[in-house]
Amino acid sequence: MDDETRDTDDALPTSDGPQAVDASGADSAPEAPEAPGLLERLRTPLFIVGALALVAWLSAGAVQRNDVYMTSMEEFDPIRARADRIRVAGWVADDSIDQERERLVTRFRLRDEAGAVAVPVRYDGVLPDLFTEGGQVVATGQLNDSGTFVAEHLMTKCPSKYEALEAEPTPGNSPQTAPAKTAEAQREPGSVEPS
What we know:
9 strands; 25% helix; two-stranded antiparallel ribbon; 195 residues; five-stranded mixed β-barrel; alpha+beta
């Protein structure tokens, strides 16, 4: 009986898993896993290169949008202002502001400090809070064919906190009405009066 058992054991498959059977019914060896293809091996490096290219393209676009020539009204060049977007700094001319509030359109004249050079400006949008006649403004835009500077962005300059303020005397701050400090009020708390 040992011989019969040995013969049947030899006939059993030796591997643990199922064996593949080809069309003829004969057993075939299990297939080895395929080596990864070229695309699978390059997937991560291609993704990294693509992401870096996208970041570079977006950065270059942002720099181009912010790369705008800045000038003052004293150096204003209408030829350049027609050809390129520029930023121009100047003052809002007195009695030149014309607003269409329902359409948010504002027209005014931008002048140099002396008032010798001025250009008409049109701005569509909400005005900055400090926009007033005589106020300093930086306008970003382009000069159109009719000679009007079409501003897409306005920025007002605040007065410097270091400029001298012109204080007008009011009833509460004139020297005549200010109470005089007595010797007691000038002493620091806790100090002893000299005898």
